[in-house]
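From the methods appendix. Each design record in this collection lists the tokenized structure first, followed by the designed amino acid sequence. Records were kept in a plain field format so they could be parsed without special tools. The example shown here is representative of the layout used throughout.

RECORD:
FOLD TOKENS (395 positions):
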């Protein structure tokens, strides 16, 4: 018996992005020392106070079925967070609590798309985007944001691609590029959504990690709240990746339908995790800044090291926990460079091609090692690129 076509074709023909990561982890398991700059995982663990909140809630008995939409106090806390950060009127009826941002992406595309609908997403993209779209039966359509435009999506390109489409997925601050979309970019995206009658799905899981510029949620623009679904999560902002706690924010009537979807899929999020999320949010903006500070610091370390060479060109890392580096001067593809770097230097980075065609010839560096180890890895990476560019094979 064959499984369904849908489940067999989730990743399509593209690289799912995990090959080099799996190889690096296999080397580590075999006892080799590898400096890992691959996935967006904090180098610190979840704060002990949040872990204590999980334990306390579980010990006190919040281990049974929790309310599927989310516990009322957490829905209100997330609604208040969005009101405070964006100015958009938001109530608990606009919020569905989900098992992480990934489940929120899945739910949002179920809300937006029917079978066979064209669903757009920006290339470069987070590795799960096309598979998530295919999982709901829609056609995943990448729209390139080009390196020569600073990976800012162009309105004219989006407008042409949006003909006949049903939804558009964006992500700012962006994974993998570290780019923060400008006010003009966000305004252009909103104009396209209105002109082409699109659902706009805005992945904002890095909204607390902005180093240059300002995060603008498109839901805050005039007329956009009724057609925008915002994906949020505590994974990045509170170093709670394993807790799987996120949300969808959108029109109340859509959230009501998504509660029905959750009833038939995830059946909610454990109550003790939600209680811990409520406590985590109570720690405020100062705590979130502490979580994000190492990534800004390492961005600055990398920029200082890159200033002394001419081979690698950095895409300005304005937010999130990544830097995108243009390594085309070495004569290698992103995949070729990443594999050669792993072999020669035991440093693991992600090939740009793992994130779409627009990132070909680039690598993504996660800013996720302690400062000294990160500086060592970055220095060795730069030396490797400089030597590779100087070899005849690179010419």
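DESIGN:
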């Amino acid at each position: 018996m064959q499984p369904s076509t849908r489940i067999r074709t989730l990743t399509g023909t593209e690289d799912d992005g995990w090959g080099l990561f799996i190889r690096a982890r296999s080397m580590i398991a075999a006892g080799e020392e590898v400096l890992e700059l691959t996935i967006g995982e904090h180098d610190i663990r979840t704060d002990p106070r949040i872990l204590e909140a999980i334990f306390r809630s579980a010990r006190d008995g919040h281990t049974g079925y929790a309310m599927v939409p989310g516990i009322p106090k957490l829905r209100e806390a997330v609604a208040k967070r969005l009101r405070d950060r964006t100015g958009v009127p938001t109530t608990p009826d606009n919020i569905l609590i989900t098992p992480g941002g990934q489940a929120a992406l899945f739910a949002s595309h179920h809300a937006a798309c029917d079978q066979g609908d064209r669903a757009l997403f920006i290339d470069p993209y987070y590795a799960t985007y096309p598979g998530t779209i295919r999982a709901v039966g829609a056609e995943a359509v990448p729209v390139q944001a080009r390196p020569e435009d600073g990976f800012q999506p162009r309105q004219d390109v989006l407008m042409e691609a949006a003909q006949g489409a049903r939804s558009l997925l964006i992500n700012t601050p962006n994974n993998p590029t570290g780019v923060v979309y400008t006010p003009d970019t966000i305004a252009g995206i909103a104009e396209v959504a209105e002109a082409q009658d699109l659902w706009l799905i805005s992945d904002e899981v890095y909204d607390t990690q902005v180093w240059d510029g300002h995060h603008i949620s498109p839901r805050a623009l005039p007329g956009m709240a009724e057609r925008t679904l915002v994906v949020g999560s505590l994974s990045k902002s509170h170093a709670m990746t394993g807790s799987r706690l996120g949300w969808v924010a959108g029109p109340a009537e859509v959230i009501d339908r998504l509660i029905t979807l959750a009833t038939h899929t995830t059946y909610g999020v454990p109550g003790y995790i939600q209680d811990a999320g409520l406590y985590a949010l109570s720690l405020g903006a100062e705590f979130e800044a502490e979580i994000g500070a190492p990534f800004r610091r390492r961005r600055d370390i990398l920029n200082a090291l890159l200033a002394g060479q001419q081979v690698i060109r950095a895409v300005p890392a304005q937010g999130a926990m990544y830097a995108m580096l243009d390594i085309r001067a070495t004569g290698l593809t992103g995949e070729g460079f990443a594999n050669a770097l792993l072999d020669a230097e035991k440093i693991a980075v992600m090939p740009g091609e793992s994130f779409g065609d627009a990132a070909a010839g680039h690598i993504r560096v996660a800013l996720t090692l302690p400062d000294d180890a990160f500086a060592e890895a970055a220095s060795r990476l730069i030396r490797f690129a400089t030597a590779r560019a100087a070899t005849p094979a690179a010419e």
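APPENDIX NOTE: The CA atoms of residues 99 and 269 lie 6 Å apart.
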